[in-house]
Amino acid sequence: MCREMRAEVEEHIRTMVRYHHDKEFILAPYCVDGHWTLFIIVVKEYILDSLFKEGNKNPSHYRLTSVFERALLPIKPTFDMVNCNQQAETLECGYILLQSMFDFLNVYQIAIS
Q: Which of 10, 32, 39, 88 has the fewest other C-beta atoms within 10 Å?
């Protein structure tokens, strides 16, 4: 979606940030190439990616980070990779994303902020 419709995605993010300006957090589930990742927007953004990869996960490896950076201007967000459950196979990402959203909303939002 970001690759083919980048301008539309940026405009949607801008619209959602303006619409939800009074909210403390915005949860943005994101699917690319069939893999779900969760972005939590708090001007400081947290990325929860369950796909186990050797080496260091880097926010710049995600297409959506640059989309958020442009959409949130003049705010300059920072991105933190959050330790989260890692999947053993390739099909659990949607379940882990939903579990991460549930945990964030019910348990961790106070601890993260």
A: 88
Spatial separation of the C-alpha atoms in residues 61 and 3, rounded to whole Å: 14
CA 52 to chain centre: 16
Domain extents for the chain? 6-112
CA distances to 12, 42, 44, 52 from 39, rounded to whole Å, are 15, 10, 10, 17
Which residues have C-beta within 8 Å of that of residue 42, sequence separation ≥ 6? Answer: 24, 25, 26, 112, 113
Query: Which tens digits make up the pLDDT trace of 20-38?
Result: 777 777 888 888 888 888 8
What's this model's pTM, rounded to 2 decimal places? 0.56
